[in-house]
Model the fold of this input.
Amino acid sequence: MRISSHFDGGAIEFVRQTAGADGAWLELDIRRDSTTDAACDFRQWFYYRLEGAAGRTVRMVLRNAAACTYPDGWPGYNAVASYDRRRWFRVATRYENGALIIDHRVERDVAWYAYFEPYSWERHMNLLGGLCRPARLEDLGATVDGRDLTMVTAGSGVRRVWIIGRQHPGETMAEWFIEGMLQRLLDAADPVGRSLLEAATLRIVPNMNPDGSVRGNLRANAAGANLNREWTAPSAQRSPEVLAVRERMQHTGVDVFLDIHGDEALPYVFVAGSEMLPGFTPRQQALQSAFCEKLKEASPDFQTVRGYPTGKYDADALKLASKWVGHTFGCLSLTLEMPFKDNANLPDPEAGWSGARSARLGAAVLVPLLAVLKELAAA
Ligand code: ZN
Done:
């Protein structure tokens, strides 16, 4: 048997293979995010290829799961696997004595395993290349590794909507979400998309962290920065991705901002708002509530019962994108979180939360966006 991860988004460390009475064991370690910063210690994302195990039951022991960034992410979690990297399914996984143990009866010569359904750089470029004409593409600048940071602009209305995804590159559900959203937004047969394009100019950055995505990182860019802690003082050396987007936002202004993420531990879809910020207005609260109510109607995957506790405000809060934007522009500004595990209110034992479900949620989010823009127009 052979384990490899030297491909787009790949990440694992092979330790050893042992043969037990009950089948083959592979001992693996989840590796640190790949960056130039020796102090950067995020680890949680894994994505690897297993070859030569067809017909065998293989136990894969990810030995250092307890030492990962979010050990709360492991109880109740099942890894995803695929034979063709198109259809991903969940495989029985348990968290025991600090290790994540995946038992799988492997049916093919080659199988892939990952923390969540990957979203490849190739797919990212195909997404951009396939956008139909109402959208415009623009590179905002180069990443630390020199990749393009691409913004999609669509619509011609006066309201300014900004949506970004994958500041945390291992949260691939964010780019699945944006793909589903863009498809509906640019579908000439869809009245919601068309109305939005009339009402607003939408600026969308599908992947804020291309380097981390290709390097197979959970959180960091190539310089070791957690981009969602860089918004008060981004720098050209450490966080050029945030610097470029922030500069453009200051130029355009913002009426609505969504920052798309995945949460390791909570098995729900939820948003985190800006209500703890000084200067948060009743108007912002009303828009936030209206958005949530409309999203609940548009997608039963969304709920408002479970989520993060509303933290007390401290200065560090403004390092987060949605807090900084909400505070700077006084606008509706939300972080949207999807689960790595599943939506416990509407579980799918075979797929769990998936790329497809993220894309459907992305399509659904156009409904509350349109509703909120109508409220802005009425004000
Ligand atoms: Zn995140």
